[in-house]
Amino acid sequence: MSSLRPVGPRAAALSASFLLFCAISCGKVLGADFEGATVASSGGTTGEDAGAGGLGATGGTGGTGGSFVDADADADADADADAAPECKVVHVSPAGDDQRDGCDPSLPKRTVSSAIALAHVRKDVGTIRVCAGKYDEALTLDVPVAVLGGYDCTSWTRTTTYGHPSFDGKHETVIGGTKLPAALRVTGALVGSSIVLDGLTILGAVVPGPGDSGVAVDDACALRIDGGAAPVVSNCKIRGGDSVSINTDGSTGLRIDTGAQPEVFQNDIDGGTGYTFAATRVGRVGVTVDGASPSLHDNAIRGGNGDPAPSAGLSSAGLVIRDSSGLTSSQSKPVRRNSIQGGNGNGTLPGVTSSGVLLLGASDVDLVENSVRPGSSLGTAVELRGIESKSKGNVGLYQNRVFGGAVSNPNKPGDGFRVAVLVESAKSLRVENNLIYGGVPVLNFTGGSPSFGLSLAAVNGAVVRHNTIFSGPSGYPTVGTALKLYLGVTALVLQNNILIAASGWTEPIYSEPCASMGVYARFENNLLFKAGVFGTDNVLNVLGYGSPGQDVCSEWQGFATVDALESHLTSVCASTTPGLCTGLGGTKVGGNRTLAANCAGDSGCIAWSDCAGNSIMCLQSVFAAWSSSELGLDTMFGPGWTLAPNVPCSIARSSLDLSVTNDFANTARTAPPSMGAAEHDGACTP
Fold first, then answer.
1. Does pLDDT of 20 surpass 80?
2. Cα torsion 237, 242, 246, 249: sign
């Protein structure tokens, strides 16, 4: 007596008539040429026949209506399928018919789901080509078969500009649109690194709900990759929908979960317009990585646009990484060369409304060569962040360009708060060769709301070196700063940085903890200066303390000269100072510089008359370019802040060589290296 089991996909898809049809129509085996592809994956060459010879799915996925079939008969059907003419490529068109096998491009299937079902049956199917049209399906890809879009439905060719960076849309292949929770889910270890998703537009669900503001559902996204899957995703446009969540992120473009290891590059990804009622989640996100280790590089990622509905948590973020390890240079998987922007937030609740990048949990992450900025607040002013890390793992920031955001509400410039980079509670932190702009690219802004370049909290042993950090302007009574230190920062190594305070109520370093608390292990060869003055309301310190005073430091205590600052650091944190300073052997200082029109006997000061006037005059004398229209912001994201030919030699040729091989633009550093993020080997002023 033969055993019974659920209907397998082979038995469901194949019949005698089907096999006869395929024998007639599939006489020609199509070559795997991956026409027009711009894929240049760092993981190796990809092609259409990648993944052929894949799954022999005994047992299948279960039949309709719970029916059963004789297992011996099902095995016979499998054998018949294996004997069918070879069919490497299955074609799908809106004008197709799912009764066909799709092996002949002139006789395509109608739906992508039918093509995937055939791939379960046919071991030789390695590629599904989908031509221009809309395919509003909820797909699960769990077999080793590539899915490629962007084809003309007659010639089955692509334009040369179908994908990154043009995305010309001439033969756009659209997957999803109304399907929840995901338009396409890629899952399982069978979908390995040889499998490519390329040339697709994948849409999260836009479904009218109460008040036409979306439908409530958890875990909604356009594309989800999980279960150990490791495909290559390239040249795709991925868009989150308008879903509303009770417990999770609202809408997401791309979710990468649970052990997945995809390579994701040269895609355009947007988080949609959703929101969430969960206070610890995000309303809309371009990409989330949760317990996974993808290679994420060379993408354009945006958080999505806001709507009047408030999110209980963070309104929008470009990239959110939670409890994910291995996204590091040592593992050859840094988050690299992406353009990342937090989406717009509604700004109706207190707290952070938009972040470019958010790191959470115990994530080990290196961010390398990315351009990052938050979105905008659409309502009353709240906080904006370029990069916000609350990860308790190992964090590295290298060669990034980061902006903290513009004024949240132009009608209320005294509201709001912007930080380009905030790192809290990291196990280890290294910040090297970055260009960092606190916020508000407006000359002589006096609105009152502060901007911080780099902020650190509860971090021990951070290494911050060879960065150029500009506070951006702030107005009385709030203090803006290039470097903000909160309580819990200890054993900081601060070397070869350029820390710039804009005109007005700003200073290069603003600290809450007193140096006597073991804040600095090394404070060496940094340029700290005020970029001009405006009006009569200017803070002229190179370092100032906040309120209330801590330990031996008094409230609002400040130091206007390098000599006074270095003397303070060594006296309050000597090798004999009780507490952390004893273990550090005292703070090591030396080689620090400032620029001022009047040095007033300060041995660390370089007389620089151009910094007596406005910020633009000062900054254009120090850097080769610093635009006036956006107060250097477009310069930062463009050619970068490189040093001017006449810059002082003590800046262009630091006496401290840290053996950092390249600068922010990958220009080789030569000994003696320049301070800041840019290497300058040309002429300088003695």
1. no
2. positive
Helix H or strand E segment including 318: strand 314-322
Residues 592 and 604: their CA atoms lie apart, in Å, by 6
Same domain assignment for residues 81 and 228: no
Query: Do 181 and 130 fall into the same domain?
Result: no
Say if 571 falls within a structural domain: no
From the number of C-beta atoms within 10 Å of its C-beta (0-12, 13-18, 19+), residue 578 rates as exposed
657, 619 Cβ separation under 8 angstroms: no
Q: 212 and 97 share a domain?
A: no
The whole-angstrom separation of Cα 439 and Cα 377 is 14
Q: Which domain holds residue 473?
A: 174-539
Task: Tell me, yes or no, whether 502 lies in a domain.
Answer: yes
Q: Do 218 and 126 fall into the same domain?
A: no
Reported in sequence order, the residue ranges of 55-94 that DSSP labels E, i.e. its strands, are 68-70, 89-92
Helix residue spans in 354-500 (DSSP H) = none
Could you read off the pLDDT of 669-686 as tens digits, one per residue?
999 999 999 999 999 999
Q: Give residue 570's pLDDT.
A: 98
Residue 414 has pLDDT above 80, yes or no: no
Number of H helices, E strands in the chain: 9, 48
Whether 489 contacts 464, CB under 8 Å: no
Whether residues 199 and 341 share a domain: the answer is: yes
What is d(CA 354, CA 386) in angstroms, rounded to the nearest whole number? 8
**For the whole model, what pTM was predicted?**
0.87
- Range name among 68-72, 229-233, 671-675 with the lowest pLDDT average: 68-72
Across 459-526, the runs of DSSP E, i.e. the strands, are 463-465, 468-470, 480-485, 492-495, 498-502, 506-511, 520-524
Give the separation between CA 45 and CA 433, rounded to whole angstroms: 32
Q: Which two tokens stand for residue 548?
A: 């209330």
- Which are the contacts of 486, defined by CB distance < 8 A and separation ≥ 6? 424, 455, 456, 457, 458, 512, 513
Q: How far apart are CA 206 and CA 438, in angstroms?
A: 36
Q: What is the DSSP letter of 458?
A: S
Q: Quick one: pLDDT at residue 1?
A: 37
Nearest to 250 by CA among 310, 175, 183, 290: 310
- How confident is the model over 433-461, as a mean pLDDT? 90
Tell me how many degrees the CA angle 635-639-642 measures, rounded to the nearest 5: 85
Q: Are 130 and 182 within one domain?
A: no
Gap between the Cα atoms of 595 and 499, Å rounded: 11
Question: Which of 611, 466, 460, 451 minimizes the C-alpha distance to 526?
Answer: 466
Which of 539, 563, 584 is the last residue before a domain boundary?
539
* Tally of structural domains, the chain: 2
Find how far residue 550's CA is from the centre of its chain: 36
Looking at the structure, tell me whether residues 128 and 179 fall in a common domain.
Answer: no
> In this predicted model, what pLDDT tens digit does every residue of 511-551 receive, in sequence order?
999 999 999 999 999 999 999 776 666 778 999 999 899 99
Average pLDDT over residues 8-19: 34
The C-alpha atoms of residue 141 and residue 111 are separated, in whole angstroms, by: 13
Q: How far apart are CA 576 and CA 587, in angstroms?
A: 11
Pairwise CA distance, residues 11 & 76, whole Å: 9
pLDDT at 48 over 90: no
Rounded to an integer, the average pLDDT of 287-308 is 91
Report yes or no: 258 and 226 within 8 Å, Cβ to Cβ: yes
Predicted confidence (pLDDT) at residue 183 exceeds the cutoff of 60: yes
CA dihedral sign of residues 574, 575, 577, 578: positive
Q: Indicate if 402 and 533 belong to the same structural domain.
A: yes
